[in-house]
């Protein structure tokens, strides 16, 4: 596999393109949840104009009235080409893919195929809060296998969780977050191969949420698709252009199956494919096919912002522990040394007028932490840290 996640780009940094006044005209969750005096650095939306190929694809669809139902494999073919060039993964089988409404709804459909009501689903907290919400709403039960102190998968803890999950029979699944949200950890090929071996040993089905796969920013780091590692033949994965190109409002994702899971994916009801937006499919396809230069410019900007945040925290909030991640545009901050209680995000919102994601919903290991969205301008990050520092003076 190649290791060049990011390539030089002549494009200007999209994170520097929009003013706060322009951004506040948006009507999405990030910009309408809090009053106008609050700086929103919480939910995973980027402060960027869309990539030109995406705008063209959607504009052409509007002009043509091309707003019907999705069909075909163009999205999967674009992802396969992207995966080959970006990750050196040449084995993404288009015939073992299916369009689903979005990644988390796709995760739900995969669980319906490989587990039943009341069955356990293992997760690695601290982890993306909807992992808990969607699993329990589906009438599955969450089994935690917390990350290690190094914020990586603890294979011993994971094995024990697998063992407990399958005790007494029944079917178990493991919801793998790769790259990991909120820590930005990129799992290595060896780690993923070890996960696959454990899953096979205990009969646990792996469902990998790989929505952040395009957003690997650290030099030298590389994303490894779960289905590409030895032993992952019975795995399932979900991918999307949503996070990489800021397309959350244009619903479309892909479910992928290893060769040993092809029959499972084939059992997914046909009507699930009615949920994605046709315009969303067009947008995601254009992003993967023609939007890599824009993506590289964004990744460069995120990497610069991550380094900026590290410097600002060292200067203004030296008590905050920040281990810069290798992926995602999110920063996981340990604020326990500040003695702000279990929910420092609430303190920074009330006293500093900065909206951040509370660590508590991320599960075990989340109390005293918060998540900060780096996908904004350097000026906004600088102002946010200034406000946060003032809030604890």
Describe this protein's structure.
Strand 3 (120-123), helix 6 and strand 4 (141-144) form a beta-alpha-beta unit. By secondary structure, the protein is an alpha/beta fold. The N and C termini lie far apart (49 Å). The chain is globular. The strands form 3 sheets. The protein has a 7-stranded mixed β-sheet with strand order 2-8-7-6-5-3-4, sandwiched between helices. Strands 9-10-13-12 form a 4-stranded antiparallel β-sheet, with helices on one face. It is 39% helix and 13% strand.
Briefly, what is this?
By secondary structure, the chain is an alpha/beta fold.
Topology:
Blueprint: H1 20-23, H2 29-32, E1 39-40, H3 52-64, H4 74-87, E2 97-100, H5 103-114, E3 120-123, H6 130-137, E4 141-144, H7 155-166, E5 172-177, H8 189-202, E6 204-209, E7 236-239, H9 242-245, E8 253-257, H10 262-266, H11 278-290, H12 292-316, E9 321-322, E10 330-334, H13 344-352, E11 354-355, E12 357-358, E13 369-373, H14 378-392
Parallel strand pairs: 1-11, 3-4, 3-5, 5-6, 6-7
Antiparallel strand pairs: 2-8, 7-8, 9-10, 10-13, 12-13
Major sheet strand order: 2-8-7-6-5-3-4
Helix content: 25-40%
**Quick one: overall form?**
globular
- List segments where confidence is low: pLDDT < 50 over at least 5 consecutive residues: 1-5
């Amino acid at each position: 596999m190649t290791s060049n996640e990011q390539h030089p780009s002549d494009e200007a940094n999209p994170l520097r393109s929009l003013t706060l006044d322009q951004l506040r005209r948006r009507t999405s969750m990030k910009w309408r949840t809090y009053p106008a005096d609050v700086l929103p650095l919480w939910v995973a939306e980027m402060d960027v104009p869309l990539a030109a190929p995406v705008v063209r694809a959607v504009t052409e669809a509007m002009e043509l009235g091309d707003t019907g139902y999705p069909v075909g494999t163009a999205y999967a073919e674009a992802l396969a080409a992207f995966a080959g060039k970006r990750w050196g993964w040449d084995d993404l089988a288009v015939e073992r893919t299916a369009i689903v409404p979005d990644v988390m709804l796709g995760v739900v459909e995969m669980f319906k195929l490989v587990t039943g009501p009341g069955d356990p689903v293992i997760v690695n907290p601290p982890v993306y809060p909807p992992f808990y919400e969607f699993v329990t709403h589906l009438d599955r039960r969450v089994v935690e296998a917390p990350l290690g102190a190094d914020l990586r998968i603890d294979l011993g803890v994971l094995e024990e969780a697998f063992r407990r999950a399958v005790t007494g029979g029944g079917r178990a699944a493991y919801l793998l977050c790769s790259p990991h949200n909120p820590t930005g950890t990129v799992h290595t090929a060896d780690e993923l191969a070890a996960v696959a071996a454990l899953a096979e040993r205990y009969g646990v089905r792996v469902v990998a949420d790989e929505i952040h796969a395009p957003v690997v920013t650290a030099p030298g780091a590389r994303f490894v698709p779960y289905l590409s590692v030895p032993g992952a033949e019975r795995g399932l994965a979900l991918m999307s252009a949503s996070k990489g190109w800021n397309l959350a409002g244009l619903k479309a994702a892909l479910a992928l199956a290893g060769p040993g899971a092809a029959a499972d994916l084939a059992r997914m009801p046909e009507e699930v494919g009615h949920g994605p937006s046709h315009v969303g499919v067009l947008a995601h396809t254009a992003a993967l096919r023609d939007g890599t230069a824009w993506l590289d410019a964004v990744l460069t900007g995120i990497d610069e912002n991550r380094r900026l945040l590290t410097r600002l925290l060292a200067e203004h909030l030296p008590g905050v522990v920040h281990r810069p991640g290798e992926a995602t545009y999110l920063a996981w901050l340990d604020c326990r040394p500040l003695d702000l209680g279990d929910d420092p995000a609430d303190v920074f919102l009330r006293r500093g007028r900065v909206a951040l994601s509370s660590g508590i919903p991320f599960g075990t290991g989340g109390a005293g932490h918060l998540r900060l969205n780096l996908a904004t301008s350097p000026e906004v990050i600088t102002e946010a840290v200034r406000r946060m520092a003032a809030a604890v003076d």
